[in-house]
């Protein structure tokens, strides 16, 4: 027997390596799935209001100025944690009222501040947005992005 990589050894390395990394891959898939199901997205159910709110969010291109979970534009504050900042994460009525008040007060006209345009939304649309933002707030982002006031 020679010390060199024979055909048989090369085949063993190939099959052994393939099996090993296939097993690693399966283990990582199982781990990710477990993680997603138990922690990442299970904070709040996807109700019809949340779904409506996501449509309103998309139709009005809020993402063109804001980021959500770190994705989007950096003109205006991150919004996946705005309900925490406002202290209404677990208060649907309070979340609606404060968001409604905010939207109706825009643009603020405050000197030297970036302005948010006025959006003419129905009550249902604003309620949906409030629930969508609460839903985003309940997603476990493992502390990121940091919750600095905007
Ligand atoms: C043209 C850019 C722009 C668009 C589009 C926009 N916003 Fe804003 N938004 C801003 C700016 C700028 C601020 C910060 C204003 C301030 O602090 O005076 C803001 C602030 C906010 C805040 C308060 C954030 C905080 O931390 O106090 C909320 C909530 C919000 N926007 C929701 C929305 C929603 C929902 C939409 C879509 C319907 C939207 N925005 C679309 C520019 C925008």
Describe the structure.
- With 150 residues, this protein is an all-alpha fold.
- It folds into two domains: 1-40; 48-138, Orthogonal Bundle (Cytochrome Bc1 Complex, Chain D, domain 2), CATH 1.10.760.10.
- It is 53% helix and 3% strand.
- It is built from five helices and two strands, in the order H-H-E-E-H-H-H.
- It has helices at 7-40, 48-59, 82-86, 92-104, 123-138; strands spanning 67-68, 71-72.
- Strands 1-2 form a two-stranded antiparallel sheet.
- Strand 1 (67-68) and strand 2 (71-72) form a beta hairpin.
- The termini are far apart.
- Bound molecules: heme C (HEC).
- Heme C binds next to helix 3 and helix 4.
Search tags:
single chain; 150 residues; mainly alpha; Cytochrome Bc1 Complex, Chain D, domain 2; 2 domains; two-stranded antiparallel sheet; 5 helices; 3% strand; binds heme C
Brief synopsis:
By secondary structure, the chain is mainly α. Helix content is 53%, strand content 3%.
Any chance you could write out the topology, listing elements then pairs?
Elements: H1 7-40, H2 48-59, E1 67-68, E2 71-72, H3 82-86, H4 92-104, H5 123-138
Antiparallel strand pairs: 1-2
Helix pairs in contact: 2-5, 4-5
Bound molecules: heme C (HEC).
Heme C binds at residues 60-62, 64-66, 75-77, 79, 82, 85, 99, 102, 108, 113-117, 119, 129, 150.
Strand order of the largest sheet: 1-2
Largest sheet: 2 strands, antiparallel
Shape field: elongated
Q: What distance separates the N and C termini?
A: 71 Å
C-alpha Rg (nearest Å): 24 Å
Q: Tell me the CATH architecture of the largest domain.
A: Orthogonal Bundle
Mean pLDDT score: 91
User: Would you tell me which CATH topology of the largest domain applies?
Assistant: Cytochrome Bc1 Complex, Chain D, domain 2
Order of helices and strands: HHEEHHH
Q: Estimate what percentage of residues fall within beta strands.
A: under 5%
- Reading off the top of the CATH hierarchy, the class of the largest domain is best stated as Mainly Alpha
How many beta-strand elements?
A: 2
| Class computed from helices, strands and strand pairing | mainly alpha
> In the residues, how many domains can be counted?
2
Q: Indicate the percent of residues in helices.
A: 40-55%
What oligomeric assembly is this protein in? single chain
CATH superfamily of the largest domain: Cytochrome c-like domain
Distinct ligand kinds: heme C
- What is the overall number of helices? 5
Low-confidence stretches: none
Protein name: Cytochrome c
Keywords: Heme, Iron, Membrane, Metal-binding, Transmembrane, Transmembrane helix
Domain Cytochrome c: 48-137
Transmembrane segments: 12-30
């Amino acid at each position: 027997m020679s010390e060199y990589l024979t055909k048989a050894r090369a085949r063993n390395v190939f099959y052994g390596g393939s099996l090993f990394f296939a097993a690693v891959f399966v283990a990582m898939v199982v781990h990710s799935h477990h993680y997603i199901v138990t922690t990442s997205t299970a904070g709040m159910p996807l109700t019809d209001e949340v779904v409506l709110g996501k449509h309103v969010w998309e139709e009005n291109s809020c993402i063109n100025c804001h980021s959500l979970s770190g994705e989007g534009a950096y003109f205006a504050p991150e919004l996946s944690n705005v309900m925490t900042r406002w202290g209404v994460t677990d208060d649907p009525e309070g979340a609606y009222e404060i968001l409604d008040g905010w939207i109706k007060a825009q643009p603020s006209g405050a000197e030297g501040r970036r302005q948010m345009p006025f959006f003419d939304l129905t009550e249902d649309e604003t309620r949906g947005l409030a629930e969508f933002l609460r839903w985003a707030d309940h997603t476990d982002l493992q502390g990121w992005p940091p919750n600095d006031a905007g």
